[in-house]
C-alpha cells in the first residue's frame, strides 16, 4: 500500500477504498441479502421495519468480497502480515430502511470484540483484544440521506486514554459509549457515503455512529470484524510497529 495512504490512515483512522469489490460480486451479495429478509426491493410497502439485522453469511460472493487483493494488501499493511485472520464470511449486516420509526441505535461508540463470562454484551480493552480492524462494506449506493455511518475523523487517538484505566479487563459498550463520545466530541464528523462496492477500512478504536435512513431506498452494509491470529488474540499490537500499533502507543504517550 502506498505510503501516502498509510499516512492518511494514521491521521484519520480510516481509509475509503472506492469500488474495492467488483460490481458483479456486490450485486450477488445484495441479492442474497434480500433473500434473508421479509421485504421486496421494488415494493416499499413491504419495508415494514427501520432495521433488519442479518447474521453471518458465507456464500461464495461474500467470500470473494472479503478477499479482494486491495483489502488483503491493506490489512497486511495496517495490522501486519500474519497478524490477522483471513475470513470467508461476513458478520452482522444492519440493513436500514426508510421508515417513520426512528431506531434507537445511533449512539457514538467503538466496536466491542469479546464477551467476558457472565456478560451479555461485547467489551473492548486498551490492547484491542480479539479485534485487529473494522471493515465497512457498502452493498448499496449510500448518500447523505440513506443512513451513512458517521465517523469522527482522528478519534482513534482519543480512545486509548479512555480505555487505559480499565486495564486488561476492559469495559462494555454501555460503559464506554458516553466516555468515547465525550472524548471525541471535538472531532470533525464525516459520512461514510459511496457506491456499492466501496469499503471503509477502519482503526479498531475509530469512534462512529449509525443514523436513521431518511432517504428513499434501503442501505445495505456489512461491518465484519477482522480478528487477530491466535497467537496475537489478547494483544494484537504488542511487539508490532505497524500503523495501528503506532497510533495506540502515541495516544498513550500523550496521556
From TrEMBL:
<dbReference type="InterPro" id="IPR008775">
    <property type="entry name" value="Phytyl_CoA_dOase-like"/>
</dbReference>
<keyword id="KW-0560">Oxidoreductase</keyword>
<protein>
    <submittedName>
        <fullName>Phytanoyl-CoA dioxygenase PhyH</fullName>
    </submittedName>
</protein>
<keyword id="KW-0223">Dioxygenase</keyword>
<dbReference type="GO" id="GO:0016706">
    <property type="term" value="F:2-oxoglutarate-dependent dioxygenase activity"/>
</dbReference>
<dbReference type="Pfam" id="PF05721">
    <property type="entry name" value="PhyH"/>
</dbReference>
Amino acid at each position: 500500500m502506498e505510503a501516502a495512504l498509510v499516512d492518511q490512515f494514521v491521521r484519520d483512522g480510516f481509509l475509503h477504498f472506492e469500488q474495492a469489490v467488483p460490481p458483479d460480486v456486490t450485486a450477488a451479495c445484495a441479492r442474497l441479502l434480500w433473500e434473508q429478509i421479509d421485504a421486496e426491493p421494488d415494493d416499499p410497502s413491504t419495508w415494514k421495519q427501520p432495521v433488519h439485522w442479518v447474521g453471518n453469511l458465507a456464500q461464495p460472493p461474500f467470500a470473494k468480497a472479503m478477499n479482494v487483493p486491495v483489502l488483503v494488501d491493506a490489512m497486511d499493511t495496517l495490522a501486519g502480515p500474519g497478524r490477522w485472520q483471513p475470513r470467508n464470511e461476513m458478520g452482522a449486516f444492519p440493513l436500514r430502511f426508510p421508515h417513520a420509526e426512528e431506531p434507537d441505535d445511533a449512539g457514538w461508540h467503538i466496536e466491542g470484540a469479546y464477551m467476558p463470562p457472565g456478560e451479555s454484551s461485547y467489551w473492548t480493552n486498551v490492547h484491542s483484544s480479539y479485534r485487529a480492524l473494522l471493515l465497512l462494506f457498502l452493498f448499496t449506493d449510500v448518500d447523505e440521506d440513506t443512513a451513512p455511518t458517521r465517523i469522527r475523523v482522528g478519534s482513534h487517538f482519543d480512545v486509548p486514554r479512555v480505555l487505559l484505566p480499565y486495564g486488561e479487563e476492559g469495559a462494555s459498550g454501555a460503559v464506554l459509549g458516553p466516555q468515547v463520545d465525550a472524548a471525541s466530541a471535538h472531532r470533525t464528523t464525516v459520512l461514510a457515503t459511496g457506491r456499492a462496492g466501496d469499503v471503509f477500512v477502519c482503526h479498531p478504536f475509530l469512534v462512529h455512529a449509525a443514523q436513521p435512513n431518511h432517504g428513499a431506498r434501503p442501505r445495505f452494509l456489512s461491518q465484519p470484524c477482522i480478528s487477530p491470529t491466535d497467537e496475537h488474540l489478547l494483544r494484537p499490537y504488542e511487539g508490532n510497529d505497524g500503523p495501528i500499533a503506532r497510533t495506540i502507543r502515541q495516544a498513550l504517550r500523550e496521556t
